[in-house]
Amino acid sequence: MSLSKTVQPLAQIKPVGKTLLTLGLSSDFSLSSDGSQKEMVKSLLVRNTHSLTDIMQISVCLISKVKYTVDLLDKMDQRTIKLDQYCLKIDRKLAKISLAIEQALAASSSRQVVKQ
User: Fold this and answer.
1) Highest taxon of the source (predicted)?
2) How far apart are CA 105 and CA 115, in angstroms?
3) Are 8 and 21 in contact (CB under 8 A)?
4) Where are the domains of the chain?
5) Contact yes or no for 54/17 (Cβ under 8 A)
6) For the chain, percent helix, then strand, then coil, each to nearest 5?
7) What integer pLDDT is reported at residue 20 of this predicted model?
8) 3-state secondary structure of 26
9) Model confidence over 11-59: pLDDT tens digits?
10) DSSP H/E element including 40
11) What torsion do the CA atoms of 21, 22, 25, 27 make, to the nearest 10 degrees?
12) How far apart are CA 7 and CA 77, in angstroms?
């Protein structure tokens, strides 16, 4: 009796497991550098299992995928910050050059007024 009560809830988890499997295979990049996690998810999909252990393994894969994505976004964000800082430096240099040109033009035009 208790065995069937245990099996029944696991059978109800099956659609969720399939959804997790589909999510786990939906992206182009591998979940790990050697692709072992992605292969494990594929093998679970082929076996069509729905045990709680399998779903937990898939969840771990998805969590690592999210962590990888967050790390990737963080690296891109850091590059963006560095690029913004570089652009600010260029803007400051351009402002100095622009000011120097304006001063030179002003000095040149005042000399022309004096000459006339």
Assistant:
1) Eukaryota
2) 15
3) no
4) 2-115
5) yes
6) 85, 0, 15
7) 46
8) coil
9) 444 444 444 444 444 443 344 445 566 666 666 666 555 567 777 777 7
10) helix 36-47
11) -140
12) 46
